[in-house]
Fold this sequence. Notes:
Elements: E1 2-3, H1 5-14, H2 21-28, H3 31-39, H4 46-56, H5 60-63, E2 64-65
Antiparallel strand pairs: 1-2
Helix pairs in contact: 2-3
Amino acid sequence: MAYDRSRLLNAAHQRGDQHWTDLITRLGVSRATAYRLWTGRGEPKATIAAAVEREYGVTARQLVERTAA
Length: 69
């Protein structure tokens, strides 16, 4: 399974968030976490995935999709 940042980015853009720093306020995360989520360099933990779902309507299942083995 792999984190699909495109779904987060699409939802963020629809809400008017255009930069990774917008995630800091919207999700209540650190700068480092916001940057990793925006750039795809890290998967969201359960609490962050819950915040993403609450703020953007993207579920944890949608953020992480199965990759071919």
